[in-house]
Write a structure and sequence with these properties.
Keywords: Coiled coil. The chain is of the alpha+beta class. The chain has four helices and three strands. It has a three-stranded antiparallel beta sheet. A hairpin with a 2-residue loop joins strand 1 and strand 2. The protein is flat, with a radius of gyration of 21 Å. The protein starts with a helix and ends with a strand. 4% of the residues are buried.
């Protein structure tokens, strides 16, 4: 019984280290190549694009919702739940106009040729 538990713990520690290193490398690459948008090094191609995401303000969103019971469904500004409510036509896009700030998030892709 101790063997699988110990191995699981080891693997989680390795995973944590790998994720930290990936985050550091991602930050460096985005900082270094953000202006160019792409770069090639040997057989690897780096592409940096930007996605626009919405960061909602809880208070403004609460005030914009037509029915307070909708807020109980969310309890905080959750982008996924807001998107679902929009798709279901429970709320309209126009009431969300002043409730969020658009934020550009870099997306890093590396391809091997």
């Amino acid at each position: 019984m101790d063997q699988p538990i110990a191995r699981y713990y080891e693997l989680k520690e390795i995973q944590k280290q790998v994720e930290e290193e990936l985050n550091e490398l991602r930050s460096k690459l985005i900082e270094e190549y953000s202006e160019a948008g792409s770069a090639e090094e040997g057989e690897y191609k780096l592409l940096i694009s930007y996605q626009e995401r919405r960061e909602y303000n809880d208070e403004r969103l609460y005030n914009a919702l037509p029915d307070p019971s909708l807020w109980r469904l969310m309890s905080k500004a959750d982008t996924g739940k807001i998107s679902s409510l929009l798709k279901l036509n429970v709320i309209q896009e126009k009431i969300l106009a002043d409730t969020f700030e658009p934020k550009k998030v870099p997306v890093l892709r590396i391809q091997k040729r």
